[in-house]
What does this fold into?
Amino acid sequence: MDDDTLLAEQLAYYRAGADEYDRPYVQYPELRRLLTAVDDLPVAGDVLELACGTGQWTPLLAARARSVTAVDAAPEALALARRRTTGADVRFVEADLFAWRPPRRYDTVFFAFWLSHVPPRRLPAFWDFVADALAPGGRAVFVDDGPAGAAYEDVLAGAPVPAAVRRLDDGSRHRIVKVFHDARTLTADLSARGWSARIRTVAGHYIGVAEPPEAG
Ligand code: SAM
It folds into this structure.
């Protein structure tokens, strides 16, 4: 099982399950509380949102931003996100984040529940992509599952890439990449790459704010 196979299955899962995606946001109050964290985060200016999904975070970002460009590869999720953000200054882009390059730079690059889906081998390129997408003085702001999240996943033992199995209502099973970063290791990894990061743990999730290395 290589990265490409797993990433294709992962996207197929999110496309097929777009209509089921919002359920945890309804079921789990801690996820709704996490959404309110945006209010205290340095989200400002022109915002690029990576893997926006059904747009749970998008209107909250739009309320703080001058503009939002929200990217996702699943048209089914983008259709739901569009409905959720009517009236806000949001531009949606359907694109594969492992191939897409932004046409401009942004003050904030935001991603929720995306970092855990990036295979470890692709993390250096991913962080370089985020750095390149940031305007001078810009920041990356991100939210995801910490190690405690593993208790709620069907983790695939022995997989060459950290992975889990998700099920949809029709009984289908899909493998996804799932890396449970912990705040301390992620902070150290980012520092080693020249980023300056502050990452805190909140109810099993982590919330990070990071500035890229200064362009030399
Ligand atoms: N950010 C949203 C949230 O927090 O609710 C959605 C996160 S969801 C866990 C992951 C998202 O990544 C899905 O919407 C899926 O369509 C998207 N995705 C999967 N593979 C992708 C790819 N290669 N490029 C862009 N988006 C992708």
The chain has one domain: 3-210. Helices lie at 3-16, 23-27, 29-35, 58-64, 75-84, 123-133, 183-192. The first strand starts at residue 46 and ends at 50. The pocket of S-adenosylmethionine is lined by residues 7, 10-11, 14, 51-53, 56-57, 72-74, 77, 96-98, 112-114, 117 (CB under 6 Å).
